[in-house]
Amino acid sequence: MGISENLRRGVTAKEIQFKVDGASALTRLLLGSNEVTFLVGCALNPAHRNPNLPRDLGLKSHIANGINLNLEKLGKIVLVEYF
Predict the structure, then answer these.
(1) Which residues have C-beta within 8 Å of that of residue 79, sequence separation ≥ 6?
(2) Residue 40: beta bridge partners?
(3) How far apart are CA 6 and CA 19, in angstroms?
(4) Are 69 and 26 in contact (CB under 8 A)?
(5) Do 82 and 61 contact (CB within 8 A), yes or no?
(6) What is the rounded CA–CA span in Å between residue 63 and residue 57?
(7) Contact call for residues 56 and 32 (beta carbons, < 8 A)
(8) Are 77 and 35 in contact (CB under 8 A)?
(9) Which residues pair with residue 38 across a beta bridge?
(10) In terms of DSSP H, where are the helices of the chain?
């Protein structure tokens, strides 16, 4: 399960406290923070140009915005900067 799905489902840090995967670790950090800043690069990954891959796989801005919206629903202050 990814970070976006964890936040969308409303998991708590306690529910994932013993999970060791990266998504759970980052979700715990985000849930424990009051303010979050995302620095999102605009470069495209050439490997994601494969037509057999899902369209939104490489869209970092789409993923960052989804996480942003879920964090704001939890009352977090979120800033997303693109460079």
Answers:
(1) 35, 36, 37, 38
(2) 82
(3) 12
(4) no
(5) yes
(6) 9
(7) no
(8) yes
(9) 80
(10) 3-9, 22-31, 60-73
**Residue-wise pLDDT tens digits, 13-70:** 999 999 999 999 999 999 999 999 999 887 777 776 767 766 655 577 788 888 999 9
The structural domain count of the chain equals 1
Token output for 73: 């629903």
The amino acid at residue 1 is M
Whole-angstrom Cα distance, residue 77 to residue 37? 8
57 three-class SS = coil
Read off the DSSP letter of residue 43. -
How many residues would you count in the chain? 83
Model pTM greater than 0.70?
A: yes
